[in-house]
Amino acid sequence: MPHIPDPSIQLLKSQLLDAIALYGLKLDEKRRTTAKASPAEFEERCYEWLLKKAPVAKTLTMATHVSKLTHPDAPTQASLIDTGLPAPAGYVATSSLPEPAIDFTGNAAALPVANLLRTVFDGKPLYQLLQEQDPRLPLLLGRNPVEARKVIEQLSAVRTEGAPVVSPVLKQVFWLTGEDATDDAQFHLLIPLTSSSLAQVQYERLKDRFSEEAKEARNAHEVGKPSELVDRRYPTIRSLRIGGAKPQNISALHKAREGELQMFCCAPPIWRSSDVRPILNRESIFAPRGIFRRRPGVTQALEGMAGYLRRRYLPANAETRKRVAGYVHQLVEELICLSVEYAVLPAGWSRDPACRLHPSQKLLLDPESRGSDEELAKIWRDGTWASDIGGWVSLLLVEHLRDAGIEVEEVHEGAFWARVIASGLLAYARGLPEPAVPQSAQQEAA
Hints:
By secondary structure, the protein is mostly helical. The termini are far apart. It is about 45% helix and about 5% strand. It folds into 3 domains: about 5-65 and about 100-155, no CATH class; about 195-265, no CATH class; about 295-435, no CATH class.
């Protein structure tokens, strides 16, 4: 009977040839079609490359931590930690990852072999299959058993631990292990290294912000359009470029990350009081350092609108009007959120003599106060309070845009934005319940 190839082996072989073509021969699918090589010729070229390049695997070192990520001029040191060790409670570490990505360092010319070793076959990377001595490898890594055994032996020569190095450009901590601090021999040198495996996880989670779906979600958010897409933003993330134009000199994964290292924000937390207190001895909530201007959402709306209108070529079309309207509606949402936050205070807190806010601002933050004050009730009924709030916020917006160098007419744009804000507040107010009239006021009316 003729020999029938195992379909699973054929599939793995096809994946292997595709990986060799991509990383080694630099042939993507389009170039392979253009080359017009027969399947037998293509397979021959792939195995010739593998046989030629497999010996350079001995120059590579597997690593989770790479010294050159701490400083590009540092001597190469690669450390492969035991990922089975538990991470300390409350800390994020490489050992927190269930399956950390393994990096490779060494000669940049061996980078294609490193990428081949990282290629996943049947759920496992090739280097792991080599470590486990997978019985399928002799059928994959050569045109015949003798050639396959040679390639397996050469690829398995990749190092798993580099020699420790000391350099002044690396972070160094001398830790006293004895009791005599004057004795240099009683100190142990600790050199913290950057985790490439942890950086890879962060990179993979953050790269979705450049996808078409992410752009569509951001556009829907900015214009206030309902969308089922999730708008993910990372305002505190910063990127550090290491290795310049040759990130392959750092490591294989660093090349895949396009030379960027995403950094966590280590700034101290911004303290915010969880207690909402009555606003006393203040003239306005819209002052430059007032509670409304300090809200992050307000700052985001003002800066976002200024940045958008500062564009050199901005067409006067429906899209521009939608974007601007989105920022204005964001300010309306911030006003409503502020009103909801202060609703936790006892009704009528703004009647305190020490509360010097304008009556319209009192109604925004304490709408229940209109139940015992006829003047406030009248302002509420005729909508004057919403018009006042809209005027203050639009003035704040106009002044911010002018400070940013954007010409805005207060009579036209400012008045229109004031009406839009007032309309949004009145729509919100219609959903509020009628205030309870105090018993004392009912007795006086009787």
